[in-house]
Design goal:
alpha/beta, Diaminopimelate Epimerase, Chain A, domain 1, seven-stranded mixed sheet
């Protein structure tokens, strides 16, 4: 999905699988560059409005990003445009497993392709 950059989303079926995410930075960078992805986001849905994410950013030389606004926007747009979400708001928790917790709030309307609004909180760097 795209919100200014290409993102690959990998849905997971448990919080434990999300916590166990690890990968080789060089291999991840090669994969992302070869396929044109800026990030690869691993996502677990806790409820219909609460998601947990880990966002691999090997294309930028970083194992993981603690708060990825573009990926949050792309994920929400994809879920809305495919009919999984209805009008409202979701929350995405990211960065917890790396000790840099963030909370991203995404508001969206129902028309396919319309903008989403991302706000949130993260720890100071």
């Amino acid at each position: 999905m795209n919100a200014g950059a290409e993102h690959l989303f990998v849905p997971l079926n448990s919080r434990e699988r999300l916590s166990a995410m690890s990968y080789d930075l060089g291999a991840g960078r090669d994969f992302m560059r070869r396929h044109g992805f800026v990030t690869v986001a691993f996502v677990w849905c806790e409820t219909g409005w609460l998601f947990h994410a880990r966002n691999a950013f090997a294309s930028g030389g970083v194992l993981e990003d603690p708060a990825t606004v573009a990926a949050a926007a792309a994920l929400t747009g994809m879920l809305r445009d495919t009919g999984i979400l209805t009008e409202g708001e979701i929350t995405i928790l990211q960065g917890s497993d790396m000790g840099r917790p963030s909370r991203l709030h995404v508001r969206y309307g129902t028309p396919v392709g319309t903008p989403v609004l991302v706000s949130g909180e993260s720890v100071a760097m």
